[in-house]
Amino acid sequence: MRIFVTLACLLELTSVARAQTAPDLTPGQAAAAQAYADQKKSVALAVTLEALSPIAGIGGFYAHDTDRATFLAIMSGLAAGAGVGSAFWLIHLDGQHPTGVTDRVFQDAEQGAAITVLATAAIVYLVARISGLMAAPEATAAFNENLRQGLGAPPPEPMIPFHALAPGSMFTLRF
After folding, report:
1. What pTM value is reported for the model?
2. Closest among 99, 124, 93 to 111, alpha carbons compared
3. Which of 39, 80, 105, 108 has minimal Cβ neighbours within 10 Å of its Cβ?
């Protein structure tokens, strides 16, 4: 019984921490916060659109970053077209010449050019896709911040740092 009383006293002494509450909003701020919540873009949706679309830049178009998204879309479209064209040449047209003369030097040059274009197009396409995946969250965050400032919505709540103490030689983790 003494152990339970001692434990209850210790728990009562250590449970002093309280959560901070958000300040009350004025009706204008509440309306702006509601409008912001209705119009803000989802970062997860932007990244999902970017990942599922075969053309890079779709996440940027979703977040209204049309300059960067247009460049990525054109770059990935041209790279995909060049890759498909060179693969088509390698598969179907290799060795076919309109003159009927098959010169080994010309055939090797055409085949080497097609392989080079295919490899370059693959690298450019991958760079465009990776750039699109990296740009989508940035564009969405910038859109949401501009929207919040334009509507006059209150700033998001500040992040309170979390401190964890581990037993032992005072090892402290800060997040």
Report:
1. 0.66
2. 93
3. 105
C-alpha span between 49 and 59 (Å, rounded) = 6
Residues written for the chain: 175
In the chain, what are the domain boundaries?
Answer: 40-95+102-151
> In the predicted model, what is the mean pLDDT of the chain?
79
Tokens 């940027």, residue located: 60
Q: Give the model's confidence band at 69: pLDDT under 50 very low, under 70 low, under 90 confident, else very high.
A: very high
Q: How far does CA 50 lie from the centroid of its chain?
A: 8
Q: How far apart are CA 83 and CA 122, in angstroms?
A: 7
Give 123-163 pLDDT, tens digit per residue.
Answer: 999 999 999 999 999 999 999 999 988 888 877 766 565 55
Q: ∠ CA(73), CA(124), CA(70), 5° rounding?
A: 15
